[in-house]
Amino acid sequence: MIAPLAWLAAADRWLLLKINRDWTHSSLDAVMPVLTDLQNLPWFRYGVLPAALGFWLWQGRKHALKVLVVAVIAVAGTDVIAYRVLKPSVARLRPARAGISVEVRSPSGGTNGFPSNHATNAAAAAAVLSAAYPAAAPAFASVAVLIAYSRVYCGVHYPGDVLAGLLLGAGIGWPWALLMFGGGAGGSSRKKRK
């Protein structure tokens, strides 16, 4: 059992260094830190996000409100599981804190990195939104994967941290969304949503 775990750890480190140091570009160096911390930027938090949410709620009314509530519950639940339970239990140090020479392009938060809360929360939100609006599922999944990738690119997580976060978020968010919306939730017509 030790040999496969050692191989996985070595592969995780190798891929981290490839993404963080070799597969880089100056434009990504500018974009990825913004993407990874978008929720903390004042212009996004107090401008774009409320405007988008307001428009979405105005357009979709009851259905959009239900989706918003389910997404908030799913994200809050996965956040608690990842941050309060798994991170302290696993206690895997973030790459820079473990002495790995990475280019840190964004503040990292706490000491432990497994699983990535950014990836967990993004996947939970994407799962709920995908269940509610299946036609846009590829866009929601792409945003979650980009957020996860940005964490590795910025040097604050191993690829395994974000992969575990994506799986955890989707694994909790998707069944929760199906429970709340049923199998055909997203296929409902606009008239049914109002």
Secondary-structure map:
Blueprint: H1 2-22, H2 26-36, H3 42-60, H4 62-90, H5 117-132, H6 137-153, H7 159-181, H8 190-193
What's the assembly state of these chains? single chain
Helix content: over 70%
Radius of gyration: 18 Å
Strand content: under 5%
Number of DSSP helical runs: 8
Helix-strand sequence: HHHHHHHH
Q: How confident is the prediction overall: mean pLDDT?
A: 87
Unreliable parts: 185-194
* Cα shape: globular
CATH architecture: Up-down Bundle
Quote the CATH topology. Answer: Vanadium-containing Chloroperoxidase, domain 1
**In whole angstroms, how far apart are the ends?**
54 Å
Instruction: Look at the structure and give the CATH class.
Output: Mainly Alpha
Structural class: mainly alpha
Largest sheet, described in full? none
Number of domain modules: 1
Q: Would you count the extended β strands for me?
A: 0
